[in-house]
Design a protein that fits this description.
By secondary structure, the protein is mainly α. The protein is about 65% helix and about 0% strand. Helix 1 runs parallel beside helix 5 and helix 8 runs antiparallel to helix 9.
């Protein structure tokens, strides 16, 4: 929340100050609350990543800590979304009167928000350039270095993927979970298709068959590495 230092109009006079003061307080309160909660999320996130990085997650007792802290992060995000309702109590006209005292800025320029994105695992190729610039161009010095460091660290997404990949039973020469899953799900698809084909011809039957076909295609993509990589490149996890 940046107040313009170059605006030709300044908050002067008792009436103008009275009209704008509650809006200023509202904006500053919401902004400060977001930054404080971002700080809490970063602490929780770093503690979870540390457990995964040092393989403490192999001790299943630590999973309670991981689940508890991830749950807390989820609750904080819900709270942050709900806080928009406070800003919505401001009418469009209220904001219009106040907007001239703000410089050009964006919530996406929050350093903590960007650190949070990197630590969670937002891929570089999936970022939408803000103002046609690389997101790190809005930061300088130590802030830019901090962002660069988080880009080089293992993200929560990567750490969770590595943890899931070590799940026993995935070996093809062992229990072969994926092989058994594929056989059973395909059998279920065949059974469902036979039931649909026995239905009397109607528009609903065709819609159900088309939906089933989409489900089969999506499931088969799990076992097609090229198709899987294509979906990942689009951000469809």
């Amino acid at each position: 929340m940046c107040f313009s230092q170059t605006s030709s109009k300044k908050i002067t006079g008792a009436n103008t100050f009275f009209l704008c003061s509650w809006i200023i307080l509202c904006f500053c309160s919401v902004y400060a609350a977001y930054e404080l909660w971002f700080k809490q999320i970063l602490w929780e996130l770093d503690s979870v990543r540390k457990i995964f990085i040092h393989n403490h997650v192999r001790d299943e007792r630590n999973m309670l800590t991981v689940v508890s802290r991830i749950h807390r992060i989820t609750m904080i995000f819900r709270l942050l979304v709900d806080q928009f309702a406070v800003l919505e109590t401001m009418t469009a006209l209220d904001f219009y009167d106040f907007r001239e005292y703000l410089s050009s800025a964006s919530g996406f320029q929050s350093l903590q928000f960007r650190l949070l994105e990197n630590k969670i695992g937002v891929a570089e190729n999936l970022r939408v350039p803000y103002n046609r610039r690389h997101y790190r161009d809005n930061f300088h010095g130590q802030e830019s270095q901090a962002l660069l460091q988080t880009e080089q660290e293992r993200t929560l997404l990567q750490l969770v993927e590595q943890w899931l990949e070590r799940t026993p039973g995935l070996e093809e020469d062992g229990f072969n979970f994926w092989g058994k899953l594929q056989v059973n799900v395909e059998e279920g698809f065949r059974s469902e298709k036979q039931k649909l084909e026995k239905m009397s011809d109607c528009e609903t039957k065709q819609e159900l068959l088309e939906d089933l076909s989409k489900q089969i295609e999506l499931f088969n993509s799990l076992f097609d590495s090229k198709r899987h990589d294509h979906l990942l490149s689009k951000g469809d996890h």
